Amino acid sequence: MLIDSLTHPDPDTLLRFLRAHLHARVTLHLAGEVEVLYAGRATSMAEAGDRLLLLKPDGSLQVHGPRGVKPVNWQPRTDHLSADLEDGCVVVHAERRSPAEVVRVRVTRCAQITALHLGDDALFLLQGTEAQMQRALARHPDLIEPGLSVLNRELLVGVGGIDLYARDAQGRFVVVELKRGKAGHEAVYQLARYVDAVRAQAPGAVRGILAAPDITLPALKVAQAAGLEYVKVSALPQVPEAAAQPTLF
Fold first, then answer.
1. What domain range is 41 assigned to?
2. Under a CB-based contact definition with an 8 Å cutoff, are residues 62 and 125 in contact?
């Protein structure tokens, strides 16, 4: 599992470590003082503070603070990931093309960095049925994406029923396909059919999101090539069965 580790590296040593492992399909875990700049659908900056930076083999990036379960900044996937030395500090640059987003993590002090190989091919299923998953995410769409609001469940289009039909923070329509297990090609193709059906009827931009606890690498590549998005959903809030009585959702 453990590949390599450094304690209190200087910037040059840290940069060499990152460049050696950044694209080697390993998990990198950095603890230290960092500042984070995000630019994309919004703009935010987290001033220098003690945080954990997590870089996964799928290109995702997370920055965690000392409290809470959610990262203070994250990038669900990246099209370009690099590390450079700027003004004596290492800067990790994570860029995404669609939607256009950039996360820059400036490491002002590194206490420790570790490269790990994490193997997990076991099948993972979310507890409960897909109907329960749908009900929970309809009430808590922020688990899929902050600012997402659900307009309808099981919206019928010509090719079937859309699990969640939503609108994002920018007002774009979003088609969400849910899978309680590892998603494969069929889930991607199904989502693509739903998105095409909505685009034929609704003016403006339409996004497609596949929400599941995991996805196969070939399916992820197909989704990305089609302009579709994958969001990892590995835990759900409990929704009382009483809430399943006829309501808007």
1. 2-116
2. no
